[in-house]
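hi! just following up on the protien thing from before. the input was this:
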Amino acid sequence: MLKNIDPLLNADVLYALAAMGHGDSIVLCDSNFPAQSVARKTALGKLLRIDGASVPAVTKAVLSVLPLDTFIDDPVQCMAVVDSPNERPEVQHEVQAVIAASAGAEFLLTPVERFTFYERASESFAVLACGERRFYGCFILTKGVVGPEE
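and the predicted 3d structure came back as:
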């Protein structure tokens, strides 16, 4: 057990988050996402899991140690609803609220078409599967920088 680390963050997840560099991304996905097959294509090459936790809870845990990228326009992406790209399911509203509270209101979710999302996910550093069962609970977070001590 470590102090000041969210208990959802297991050793494998902490390793991946620490190994990521500026501009690397991590996928946080629901239980319906093809996580295993996509994870094999990532830089890490294996699937990470936090079973039994919702995507909003995992997002909060991840953002407790991961800064978001301020150098790009879309550091937080979500899978767009098929045939209704302007629709925002409740899980996306919840994750947006977590992001606003953890990282700042300027970080807005960018919807990405389903197959484009799969392609971007396969190019990410890692995939982290959650126990989320609600549809469209899939997100890509891009890591920013940790500045020097003041």
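Residues 21-142 form a domain with the RbsD-like fold fold (CATH 3.40.1650.10).
The helical segments are 11-19, 35-39, 55-63, 90-102, 114-122.
cheers
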